[in-house]
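wait is this the right file?? whatever heres the structure
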């Protein structure tokens, strides 16, 4: 791409230029469990949060050089992409066995936010999240339904929060502006990305950032040299973000954020998430646009224990357009409307108000957070033969009320109770009503209690008990085969899904273990999730039955270990996850269950040369689930990475990553397609500051 060539050339030429600053904001020197978590309630260090949580920061993103969302979670236990991990589109998330690999639906089972705006998309085998990794500086993952209190009932798997970049990430202290140019290349698929970022302080109290990224890739190959279909595409993204601070103590803030990702795929599989249906439905051209806007007012209320307010108005729209179907001759109303030119979108407007009050007394440090969240979602679809049956239109209005306490005794015991109530009203559009859809409403309640006790500076224990309910979605209520009683009909009598989860864990942290100033932190978690009234589709070809039904209960249980080590010259990281599941009716392993896996990273730092290098091995055991498409043999892969930030050429940053060093042919059981073979990634960036 022209932008890639220009940006890379400028960055390399500038390497011999004057000493300039590099991007800031890294947590270098702290283990992952030492990073702050903002999504739990009041900010807490990850290891001191009574829930399994992980933060991916800018340093991790630079070393990983993610091209898709599936690249992000190699070092996060219990989390991975589901669907099509190598494709620009066609991905969803799986947390502890929650997250569908084939349909990529399941609204609210895992809640995704970008700068606080809730994101969701659900269309037949297309994927659910289309954001560009170049937009983000931080990804926060909260595992388990205890997250439902702050984000919405039904978060059985958990929450993934994306934070976009800020001007202050690029402007060093004492300076007022920066331009950063970055070019990146992937050997597998001949992928190219160019990014240009401009950051500027606007006086003492304001700043702004504009970033633009453009990239393209050909089809990738697996370890056997075979083409992975539908992995080629073009994408551009842009971010505009500004902050304004005001008030007597500069404790008030206005933040505006707007981002867009525009993706264009030619000859992409209609069943974009892969599997056996990737060839059965042929290909089409796919154009996707993902927009996110938010306006946030925050007032920290310095000196006022009753005020720590945040109010946010957000807007999100994700839309797709498909045409040029290879099997377009089969286009017809009903089941085969999936082969007709079509458009689909999800559009959500939301308002969230949240305040935290401090009520500390004696040895107790007490906080109470309460809030409300209102949203209006419009689901739209149309095709050349009318509204497609696989994507019924309609609206959902939702009101949520929640309260969470955090009571800390003597810096040893933390107790966190919480309660959320959500009320929803759903209405079909005219076409869905003609297929039998009627107005529906419901209420979901999500209580929890969590606690952490710190025995001393080294050991702590934590646990939680959480229950959440997930109301049926527009798709689950109104989807039909589009052929009346001759096929599956609207599902108007669905019960809420229910999940009760118990977590128990232990934390360990120490310093001076092997050398002066080093640090080791570890967190181990056991969990057990009882699921009832799960919503699943009746088999294709069924006649005169609802499209969706409540099935028997299931259990998901397992454990996770997350550990990090940092020293002046060395670092290491461990992520281990084992998830087991059982369908109580059949005794089989649930189809969305990930294989037992471990990721071990070992590395060295050379501060005088500005070099950080490491090796990572990932191992996955074999697994058999109730579906052949989500069963797979075990495998192991190796990655290498090197980052170079020379002090004499400040502002230059070079990252080299080699994925799948030994060109292993393998398939993750949730990915449905073979993974890419060896891939050499190179990124070169140069920052100019003033």
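ok assuming it is, sequence goes like this
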């Amino acid at each position: 791409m022209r932008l890639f060539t220009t940006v890379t050339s400028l960055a390399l030429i500038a390497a011999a230029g004057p000493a300039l600053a590099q991007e800031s904001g890294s947590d270098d020197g702290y283990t992952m469990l030492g990073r702050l978590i903002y999504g739990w309630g009041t900010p807490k260090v990850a290891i001191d949060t009574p829930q399994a949580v992980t933060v991916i920061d800018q340093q991790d993103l630079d070393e990983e050089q993610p091209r898709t969302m599936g690249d992000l979670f190699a070092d996060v236990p219990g989390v991975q992409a589901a669907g099509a991990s190598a494709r620009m589109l066609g991905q969803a998330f799986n947390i502890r066995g929650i997250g569908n690999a084939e349909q990529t639906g399941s609204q609210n089972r895992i809640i995704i936010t970008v700068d606080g705006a809730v994101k969701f998309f659900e269309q037949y085998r297309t994927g659910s999240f289309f954001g560009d990794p170049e937009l983000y500086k931080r990804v926060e993952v909260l595992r388990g339904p205890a997250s439902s209190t702050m984000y919405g009932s039904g978060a059985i798997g958990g929450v993934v929060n994306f934070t976009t970049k800020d001007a202050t990430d690029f402007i060093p202290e004492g300076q007022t502006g920066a331009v950063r140019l970055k070019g990146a290349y992937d050997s597998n698929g001949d992928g190219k990305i160019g990014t240009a970022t401009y950051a500027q302080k606007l006086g003492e109290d304001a700043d702004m950032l504009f970033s633009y990224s453009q990239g393209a890739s050909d089809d990738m190959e697996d370890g056997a040299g075979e083409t992975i279909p539908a992995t080629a595409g073009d994408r551009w993204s842009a971010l505009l973000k500004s902050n304004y601070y005001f008030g007597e103590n500069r404790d008030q803030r206005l933040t505006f954020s707007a981002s867009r990702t525009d993706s264009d795929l030619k000859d992409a599989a209609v069943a974009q998430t892969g599997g056996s249906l990737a060839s059965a439905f042929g290909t089409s051209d796919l154009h996707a646009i993902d927009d996110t806007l938010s306006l946030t007012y925050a007032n920290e209320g310095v000196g006022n224990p009753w005020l720590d307010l945040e109010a946010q108005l957000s807007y999100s729209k994700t839309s797709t357009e498909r045409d040029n179907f290879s099997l377009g001759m089969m286009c017809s109303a009903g089941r085969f409307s999936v082969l007709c030119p079509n458009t689909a979108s999800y559009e959500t407007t939301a308002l969230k108000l949240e305040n935290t009050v401090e009520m500390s007394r004696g040895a107790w440090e007490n906080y109470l957070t309460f809030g409300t969240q209102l949203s209006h979602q419009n689901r739209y679809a149309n095709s050349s033969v009318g509204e497609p049956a696989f994507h019924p239109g309609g609206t959902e209005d939702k009101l949520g009320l929640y309260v969470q306490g955090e009571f800390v005794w003597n810096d040893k015991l933390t107790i966190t109770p919480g309660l959320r109530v959500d009320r929803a009203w759903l209405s079909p559009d005219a076409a869905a009503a003609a297929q039998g859809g009627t107005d529906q409403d419901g209420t979901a309640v999500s209580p929890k209690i969590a606690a952490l006790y710190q025995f001393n500076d080294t050991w702590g224990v934590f646990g939680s008990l959480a229950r959440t309910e997930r109301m049926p979605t527009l798709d689950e209520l109104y989807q039909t085969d589009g052929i009346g009683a001759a096929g599956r009909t609207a599902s108007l009598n669905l019960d809420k899904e229910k999940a009760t989860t118990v977590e128990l864990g232990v934390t360990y942290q120490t310093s001076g273990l092997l050398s002066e100033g080093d640090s080791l932190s570890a967190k181990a978690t056991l969990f057990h999730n009882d699921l009832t009234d799960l919503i699943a589709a009746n088999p294709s070809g069924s006649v005169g039955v609802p499209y969706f039904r409540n099935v028997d209960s299931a259990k998901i249980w397992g454990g996770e270990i997350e550990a990090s080590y940092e020293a002046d010259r060395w670092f290491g990281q461990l992520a281990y996850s084992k998830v087991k599941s059982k369908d109580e009716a059949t005794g089989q392993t649930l189809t969305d269950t990930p294989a037992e896996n471990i990721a071990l990273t070992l590395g060295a730092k050379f501060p005088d040369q500005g070099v950080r290098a490491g090796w990572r091995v990932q191992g996955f055991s074999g697994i058999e689930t109730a579906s052949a498409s989500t069963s797979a043999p075990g495998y192991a892969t190796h990655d290498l990475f090197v980052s170079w930030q020379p002090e004499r050429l400040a502002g230059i940053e070079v990252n080299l990553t080699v994925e799948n060093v030994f060109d292993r042919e393998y398939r993750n059981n949730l990915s449905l397609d073979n993974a890419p073979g060896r891939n050499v990634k190179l990124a070169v960036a140069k920052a100019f500051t003033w």
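The longest strand covers residues 364-383. so i think its the right one actually
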